[in-house]
Amino acid sequence: CSLIAQKYDKDTCKDWKEEIDTLLVFAGLFSAVATAFIIDSYKWLLNTDSNATSLPTEVQKRINVYWFSSLLLALSSASTGMLCKQWLREYIRHAGRSTEDALCVRQMRLFGLSEWKVGGIISTIPLLLQVALILFFIGLLELLWRLDKTVAIPFTIIATFVVLFLLFTTLAPAMQYFYVVWRRSLAPLPPQCPYRSPQAWIIVSLFNQMFIWLTSIRPNIFERHSSFPRLDLQGPELAKPCSSWEKYDLYWVQ
């Protein structure tokens, strides 16, 4: 049992570490790009003749706020990633112990890992990077629209498609969850949306909590409106909160 538990922990931590390493690489590259822009933009705040630009003062300040905030979030995500790797290293470290002691220590650490939300902290790293990316885009868009609309238009189109793609992949799992729960008579169920991410899980959790609230407060709230299909919120499976993608899968196949 001890060896099986150790193998499970090592595999889990390996997956987390690989994800963190990928995010750290992106954070490093993004920070380098953002820094290259900030090297010039911060000079606008010095108010000297040599740093004068055609941009209004308020625009200069806003752009710097966007870019400095973006860089700070990217560096914060990198710092968080390094901390998480240190926690995971200590979690899987095993000194010479008897089998019984090893299992007790492992269970103690696993409980602490869960209760102190280490997995949730790791999930915030890509969220920080995406917010940093959006802030950088906003600052760049404002700069381009102030300088040259010919350059700003194609960049705006591309940035819009990127943001819409991020929004769609974030909302799609929750929209499918809402549709499936709304139409419980669907048979067979549609293919489950694979767009899983920390931000998508937040939206799915909000939808799940909304249905739980409807179940406990007013389960027949939609029955008064004939234009709405019947929403059966009285099943016990709908009153169970989903705390992870794995439990969401179990709900899906029930």
TrEMBL record:
Lineage: superkingdom: Eukaryota
Pfam families membership: DUF6535
UniProt KW keywords: Membrane, Transmembrane, Transmembrane helix
Spans traversing the lipid bilayer: 23-45, 65-84, 118-141, 153-179
Domain DUF6535: 48-145
Name of the protein in its database record: DUF6535 domain-containing protein
